[in-house]
Amino acid sequence: MPRTRHRPTRRPIRGRDVMTLGNSGHEESLCRVVRAHGELDLANRSAFERSLRLRLRHGPCPGLVADLTAVTFMDCSALSVLCDVHGYQWSQGGWFRLVYTRSNIALLLAGTGLAEVFPRYATVRDALKNRRYAQPAQPVGRRKAGGL
């Protein structure tokens, strides 16, 4: 079967840039990607949830990736949305992965005990290939015993 190229389609949804990958005959291209920008808090929780759920309504979806690299702030109100989508995808035999690079999101997930549920992926491609972000051996800001 010849390999076909797909072009991402972009359209804004309530201030967010959403990108859906087309179908090119490969499993990873059947996956969908939602990109969020700015702040994810109580004020825009509903719009974020609609963006994610919209991606799930368009037929079978083995995987969904939420790209949070452009998110500058996220509070606990967005976590319930992420947990709901994760549970839905799992119940359908699929997966849901987060792409994030900011330490504030990593700290929020770690502080709520969700870091294991939502491991860190550095890029969308890494999330699609299930290549987790290599965590540093020692948390940033900690000193070794006896050191200054």
What's the structural blueprint in terms of helices and strands?
Blueprint: E1 9-13, E2 16-20, E3 32-40, H1 45-56, E4 63-74, H2 76-91, E5 95-99, H3 103-111, E6 120-121, H4 124-129
Parallel strand pairs: 3-4, 4-5, 5-6
Antiparallel strand pairs: 1-2, 2-3
Helix pairs in contact: 1-2
Walkthrough of the structure:
It is built from four helices and six strands; from the N terminus they run βββαβαβαβα. The chain is of the alpha/beta class and 148 residues long. Strands 1-2-3-4-5-6 form a six-stranded mixed beta sheet. It is globular and about 35 Å long. The N terminus is likely disordered.
Key traits:
disordered N terminus, 29% helix, alpha/beta
Structural class: alpha/beta
Topology pattern, helix = H, strand = E? EEEHEHEHEH
**Total helix count?**
4
Proportion of β residues? 25-35%
The major beta sheet can be summarized as: 6 strands, mixed
Summary, kept brief:
This protein has 148 residues and is of the alpha/beta class. The protein has helices at 45-56, 76-91, 103-111, 124-129, and strands at 9-13, 16-20, 32-40, 63-74, 95-99, 120-121. Strands 1-2-3-4-5-6 form a six-stranded mixed β-sheet.
